[in-house]
Design goal:
The complex is a heterodimer of chains A (about 260) and B (about 350). With about 260 residues, chain A is mainly α. In chain A, about 75% of the residues lie in helices and about 0% in strands. Chain A is globular and about 60 Å long. Chain B is built from 14 helices and ten strands. Chain B has helices at about 15-20, 25-35, 60-65, 75-80, 90-100, 110-125, 130-150, 160-175, 190-200, 210-220, 230-235, 255-260, 295-310, 315-355; strands at about 1-10, 40-45, 45-55, 85-90, 180-185, 205-210, 225, 240-245, 270-275, 290-295. Chain B is elongated, with a radius of gyration of 28 Å. The chains are: A mainly alpha (about 260), B alpha/beta (about 350). Chains A and B meet through helix 5 and helix 6 of A and helix 8 and helix 13 of B.
Chain lengths: ~260, ~350
């Protein structure tokens, strides 16, 4: 039953992707209400899925890789809905929807929804650590999307070949301001997630700590480079993409290995 | 009631002919006196058109005469046939929808015409020259124009070099109010481009030229600040937008001399508009990080891309218009039938009343 909600949610996001694709192909792209509504509806079904799963588990639904991916997709949609309209980045929806479709599509297709043989007890601090860290990943995902938008815009300006989407992308300086703010927000939340991890009462696996500190250092370097002005905006945008890809790969690796170890 | 449109435009008449028909401020009153139940004059620099509704046909010559000022009457009538077109009923509706949507404009997709049409409508309505027929027709025309603008890309991009430059600057910096612009060269093109930037909110505009006097004159005319010519490389460290249009034979800016100027502005882009021929800026400058160089050909190419997209969108716009024309005419005929039925019933009721009275 809960997976049905997830399938409907994925279809909603897919509708936004298809509509954007068709519009771009026809050269008449226009960010409209449809994308925002489709993403909003998809978000409602995601929330319904997480709520049902959470009630069934009696805790925050972050017990396997499948749930981690869905929670991450939910964070991405949530941050988009908070940030997109506020920074007038309505076009971000056109870039957000494909990422959510990939995350949810992968989670639905891959055999990763492995239930724990024993019901895990509720641990509010552990759940706080995991959920805050994943929301931070959601913010980094949005920074990555803004980075893609920046590079698309920059490329078109450099080559003088302006496509339909160019006219709907925000100005370069606005995009860069959004990237910077998202990086700071993500970095703050991620730091909170890491620090709270040390107070969960559970011993933390060394691999997880090393990977988390590695991601933290990567984003700290990007922010330092931005702050001290030795990284140009284009490089910051590119590093946001590299940073999120690395973080996602590590997240997958860590959760997957943790899941493998926990299954008897 | 017959709907009609009589007029001349940039398609059929030159500016000398058009301007003869634009000065008569009392034309709508004269048209009504000539037999038009409703009349509206749309006069812009590219067209003079009369939209009217009348029970009996009012000839094109009669309408043309109503548009003329008295002093012009004899002169024009001596000149022979006038290049007026006339559209009736369905074609009149279609023509107005095309005009309001910018499809009949000199620059396809321009939006100024919609504002001019609205202004003409409000002025005619205020003077009582517009009745229910034209009211409904023009309200629908405004709706059609809005729909065409929303559902097609007919108004996308700019189609003149000056506005392309300003649009691109907005795509880089967003609001231009906080941007600093340096104009190198004090010729006509520099002035036009500078004015385009001022019209979009630029307040810090500096002008530099080999002749200081000319720089000062231009700065005074446009409300900018004159800068000595040997000072401009230093200015490049502070500015956001550089417009160059000098008559220099060799490039003024190359990656070698621009490099040091960009040293402390890694997070601030520099937009260079080189409208000089021969060019003032080495094209290799565009390869530098954070620098966006557009020469006159690049600007023209962007303008042409926009125009090409607009032309591609004409078919979609025509389809929207055709749908509205059919719907409008159907609603009008439906209403006419209903009115005539009511009138018929009233006549029957009237005769029965008379019969009962007898």
């Amino acid at each position: 039953m809960d997976r049905d909600f997830l399938i409907i949610s994925t279809i909603c996001f897919l509708a936004a992707v298809v509509r954007t694709g068709v519009a771009l192909r026809a050269g008449v792209f226009r960010p409209g209400r449809f994308n925002f509504l489709a993403i909003g509806l998809g978000f409602v079904f995601q929330t319904a899925f997480l709520s049902i799963r959470g009630h069934a588990l009696g805790r925050c639904p972050l017990t396997n890789l499948f749930e981690v991916f869905i929670f991450l997709a939910w964070s991405v949609a949530l941050i988009y809905m908070l940030v997109g309209p506020a920074y007038r980045l309505s076009l971000m929806g056109a870039f957000t929807a494909p990422l959510v479709v990939v995350l949810q599509g992968f989670a639905l297709i891959a055999p990763i929804d492995v239930r724990h043989p024993v019901k895990l007890p509720a641990n509010p601090l552990l759940e706080f650590h995991a959920s805050v860290s994943l929301v931070a990943y959601g913010v980094f995902a949005l920074a990555c999307i803004a980075g893609v938008m920046y590079l698309v815009q920059e490329r078109q300006l450099k080559t003088h070949h302006l496509r339909s989407i160019f006219y709907h992308l925000p100005p370069l300086t606005d995009l860069f301001a959004a990237i910077t703010r998202l990086l700071w927000w993500g970095f703050g939340l991620y730091t909170l997630g890491i620090v709270s991890g040390f107070f969960t009462g559970h011993p933390l696996p060394r691999v997880q700590v090393v990977a988390a500190v590695g991601v933290w250092l990567l984003y700290a370097t990007i922010l330092q480079g931005r702050h001290l002005r030795w990284l140009a905006p284009k490089r910051v945008a590119a590093l946001c993409i590299i940073g999120f890809s690395t973080a996602l790969t590590l997240l997958w690796g860590i959760t997957f290995s943790a899941q493998m170890h926990s299954v008897p | 009631m017959n709907l009609f449109c009589v007029g001349l435009s940039h398609h059929t008449a030159n500016v000398e002919t058009r301007e003869r028909f634009t000065g008569n401020t009392s034309a709508e009153g004269t048209l009504r006196a000539a037999g038009c139940a409703e009349a509206l004059v749309l006069a812009t620099c590219n067209r003079v058109e009369v939209y009217g509704a009348s029970d009996k046909r009012v000839s094109t010559d009669e309408i043309a005469r109503c548009l003329l000022q008295k002093s012009e009457l004899d002169e024009v009538s001596r000149g022979g046939a006038l290049p007026f077109y006339r559209y009736e009923a369905e074609r009149c509706v279609q023509h107005l929808f095309r005009v309001a949507s910018g499809l009949d404009s000199m620059v396809v997709g321009e939006t100024e015409i919609l504002g001019q049409t609205k202004k003409a409508y409000h002025s005619a309505r205020a003077s009582g020259a517009v009745g229910p027929c034209l009211h409904r027709l023009f309200q629908r025309a405004f709706r059609v124009a809005k729909q065409v603008r929303t559902h097609t890309e007919i108004t996308r991009g700019s189609v003149s070099v000056g506005s392309v430059a300003v649009d691109l600057a907005e795509k880089i910096f967003g609001e231009l109010g906080n941007c600093t612009v340096l104009v190198l060269g004090a010729g006509e093109t520099s002035e036009r481009t500078a004015r385009a930037f001022i019209s979009r909110g630029v307040s810090d505009l500096r002008v530099s030229n080999r002749s200081d006097n000319r720089a000062q004159e231009l700065a005074q005319r446009i409300g900018g600040q004159a800068v000595q010519f040997d000072e401009w490389p230093r200015q490049c460290r502070e500015i956001d937008i550089l417009v160059t249009s000098t008559s220099s034979e060799a490039p003024l800016l190359t990656p070698i001399n621009l490099g040091p100027m960009l040293a402390n502005r890694i997070d601030r882009p520099l937009f260079i508009i080189d409208i000089a021929v021969p060019r003032d800026v080495d094209p290799a400058v565009n390869e530098m990080e954070g620098v966006y160089l557009y020469d006159i050909d690049a600007l023209r190419s962007v303008a042409e891309q926009s125009l090409a997209v607009r032309r591609q969108q004409v078919a979609s716009a025509e389809a929207i218009i055709a749908e509205h024309v059919a719907d409008f005419l159907e609603k009008v005929s439906h209403e006419l039938n209903r009115t005539s039925r009511i009138a018929g019933h009233a006549a029957v009721a009237d005769s029965s009343l008379r019969a009962s009275q007898l």
